[in-house]
Amino acid sequence: MTPNARFLEFIKDITPSATTNSRSVSAHTSVRDAITSDDDFKNEVKRTFLGGSYKRKTAIRPVKKGDDTERPDIDIYVVVNGSTSPASSDYKTPDDLIEELYSALNRNRKTLGITKITRNRCSIAISTNKADMDVSPILERNDEGYYRIGNRNTGEWYLTDPEEHTNWSAKVNADANMRFNPMVKMVKWNRREFPTKNKHPKSIALEALIAKHIDRNESHYGQILHDTFNEIVDHYSTYRDLDLCPTLDDPAIENGDLLNGVTGEVFSAFYDKIEYFRDEASKALAAEDQDIATKHWRRILGDRFPSTKASKSDSSIGMQEAATMSPLTFPSAPSTPPNKPADFA
């Protein structure tokens, strides 16, 4: 079997570096400080917090865009004053919230070094030389305990709880002996290297799918990959036969479906890829020749998966695992409301 050390080496390689993390902290801290100190907006802000894969520590190393420095993606949530009730004196539409936040960020554009700023349906996307960030205005928790995020195009409000997604992810990682986060990173890398035409399921949906089917007791990452893929293939075979998309419970929203809006065609394309990767993992695990095994692992994880000659010795496993499985400190897209549009990001 391929030594676990080679998977640990790979996981370390696809994990954001210390330099990337430093840039991330500098970028989101500057944006959050600007928002809470802007004279025309600060009184509307209750607090800000981080979410997504950056906060859940499931992000992978960022893509280098042309000659630009690799920039991570960070999700920032801004809890603001407002009400969804038209009868309230504090009533605001989703578009109102987006416009107020856009104006505050735009006023601080030069100070923050913003090179691009765009209104999305539920957030403001900004780019700096340090990071790409989605900044989302949300309303305070309602009586049910959920935040609300608005769609400026439709006027709809969605329930969301990115903080609970972070708590849930940390618990799953602990229950899986700190192997859940690395597994998510490997599957996300796999999706980046060998994408389907449509990116769904992604972000929190992909993580929830892995959490549902991961073997929390297995210690060898190659075996975990195979077994997780195999569980997904077995569990959803009927849906694939019928070209339907299953439901997937949102761990933060009661009765929430993280795959709401994803079509059967999109899920089937994802399923077929997973089935192919399951078969490749079976061949890799069965191969006695490590060069042949590596060929199969690279069909799943890409050419960054270390070659036999470049791999570390088995004696380094413990030290590497301790370095790789650091406590939760480090998202991708905003949290998924139960009735979100399929391409909500």
Automatic annotation (TrEMBL):
Keywords: Antiviral defense
Annotated InterPro entries: NT_2-5OAS_ClassI-CCAase (IPR006116), NT_sf (IPR043519)
Biased composition (Polar residues): 308-318
Coiled coil location: none
Domain of life assignment: Bacteria
Cytoplasm listed as a keyword: no
SUPFAM superfamilies named among the record's database cross-references: Nucleotidyltransferase (SSF81301)
Residues covered by region (Disordered): 306-345
Compositionally biased spans, kind Pro residues: 334-345
Name of the featured protein: Nucleotidyltransferase
Species, as recorded: Marinicella sediminis
Species classification: Bacteria, Pseudomonadati, Pseudomonadota, Gammaproteobacteria, Lysobacterales
